[in-house]
Amino acid sequence: MAANEKVKLLDKEFEIFITSEKIDCAVAEVAQKMNENLKNEDVIFIGVLNGSFLFAADLYRKLEFDSQISFVKVASYMGTSSTGNVKRLIGLNEDVRNKTVIILEDIIDSGKTIEDLVKQIKGYEPKSIQIASFLFKPDAYLGTLPIDYVGIEIPNDFIVGYGLDYNGLGRNLPHIYKIVE
Predict the structure, then answer these.
(1) Residue 174 within a domain
(2) Residue 157: active-site member
(3) pTM of this prediction?
(4) What is the mean pLDDT of residues 144-165?
(5) CB atoms inside a 10 Å sphere around CB 34
């Protein structure tokens, strides 16, 4: 898909915010930190679908240690705003007991989804739980958990691309676009 300065998805217009080159650099930096910190751990990555699938794939290919990966699916968005309700749609099937669990998120804004996920995963008795989010909105974050790995901090704008969507569209965009108000 050619890089357009602006794209239209349904009734909204978006403009380039983060290029694919900057995305790749940020993923490489997160991978490098993980390669240093996790090389001696028994690690399982848990990607949160649908949004994290591109980040998870790009990150996983850059890791230099043995690990497992699985995915869970939750939903808390409708349109351009969070519903505030976190629903677990597809659960975890792998045994995470005594393993280092790294939750992979595409974006953390309010933190409701990640707080709920951590609470659920603790019930499976992992050795530890860490959080990696490609994008983080510190101004929107209401949670108390530390975010262990952050690709890029961004303002509280609505964005699409690189796995993020607007009503199901835009996940395939190679760049990240922000909404034009």
Answers:
(1) no
(2) no
(3) 0.90
(4) 96
(5) 24
